[in-house]
Amino acid sequence: MDGIQELKAKYLGEIADAGDESSIEAVRLAAVGKKGEVALEMRKLGKMTPEERQVAGPKLNALKDEINSAIAARKASLADAALEERLRSEWLDVTQPSRPSQTGTIHPISQVTEEIIAIFADLGYSVAEGPQIENDFYNFDALNIPPEHPARQEFDTFYMHRDEGDNRPPHVLRTHTSPVQIRHMEKHGAPCRIIAPGRVYRSDYDQTHTPMFHQVEGLAIDKNISMANLKWTLEEFCRAFFEVDNVELKFRASHFPFTEPSAEVDIKCSWAGGQLKIGEGDDWMEILGSGMVHPKVLSAAGVDPSEYQGFAFGMGIDRLAMLKYGIPDLRAFFDSDLRWLRHYGFASLDMPNMHGGISK
Ligand code: PHE
Questions:
Q1: What is the mean pLDDT of residues 176-202?
Q2: Any idea what the CATH number is for the domain that residue 231 is in?
Q3: Separation of 131 CA from ligand 1 center, angstroms?
Q4: What tens digit of pLDDT does each residue of 66-116 get?
Q5: How far are the Cα atoms of 92, 157, 174 from residue 178, in angstroms, in the given order?
Q6: Does residue 201 sit within a domain?
Q7: 293 CA to middle of ligand 1, Å?
């Protein structure tokens, strides 16, 4: 059986030369496959004498084993080489700086709105909304401002255009968020505790007034709510919002048709050196109007004033943003100047909560 040596030399050579999986497979079939040369040799065993078979059988089996393990070894080394090649070609320099990404910033108004919502959420208030184009019933009448009332002039209202002969009730750009009080009570009744942030419109323009600005309305109605609750709530809010222990608030007796009694609230601040700071100085900035909801307003919204009462307030979100972040001119908020937005904008990770500060 010298043939065995030849077969061995031939196939071990071919295996060593095979450069990929498919050529190894071709060698395997030709050598040890069912119809391969080794199998053909094994068939011959049947025709041998027992003595011959005792010699040739083990030799053929050994050959088969040797070829199989050579194939396995070759496959493994090809796989190693392939892996090496991938590792060499697919590398990545993790120390390289990443490409600069142009991300936007959160506008101070959005940031401050979220902060206000977070604080009032902690106090048990939920958020309500209403339309920016209101009819004059919700913006005025239901709030105890009848058509001839002088307060209608004070508001510098934008009226929607009406064609001649159009008899629908007049629509306005809402001058305040107070109509949301009516809409909410009409739908959900009392008791309730809501805040309603949103855009409002008045024809007014100077350093602290723009024709479109933002308010947040607050409304708390229940069976035993008093002015003291209002005062506590606003002081608590200001402490949390401005993150200082003593903000000084001044409650000034005032008048709103929809509250009785009414108070405007000013916060102590300073404009020294053009920088706006709260909690110090000799100036006061008006930040909100408030009061006990007028019984006529409760009735107009379907709530029985002999059973329920409560307070309401309307705060200027823009004013609060100016004060908290030292922004001296309100008009710049709405100029869409990218340099301003990058300077005063917030990263999306600056999320507010009641217990930690905003990193800025
Ligand atoms: N709506 C009033 C305004 O815009 C503010 C206010 C709201 C006052 C609620 C009292 C109660 O000036």
A1: 97
A2: 3.30.930.10
A3: 17
A4: 999 999 999 999 999 989 999 999 988 889 888 887 778 899 999 999 999
A5: 59, 14, 9
A6: yes
A7: 10
